[in-house]
Amino acid sequence: MAFIPRMELSTLSNEPIHEIIWETTITEEEARKKLATALYKFAKIKWVPIEDAVELGKETNRPIHALVLFGALDDESC
Asked: With 90 as the cut, is the pLDDT of residue 55 above it?
């Protein structure tokens, strides 16, 4: 477990951030997803409703692993 109280993006350039011509960009949602999968291993799990998991288990002839959660996994308040 790790606690990251603050994370920021910085650059060595003196150019104002709004004047930089970016070669590629991603949406804020994509950025949040990338950070989540980097910081929380459970974010890489493909979570599906139990009904879908049962059907997939039948189709692939594999057991399912079910979890019951009482709260968010990424809640860092504790």
From this structure: yes
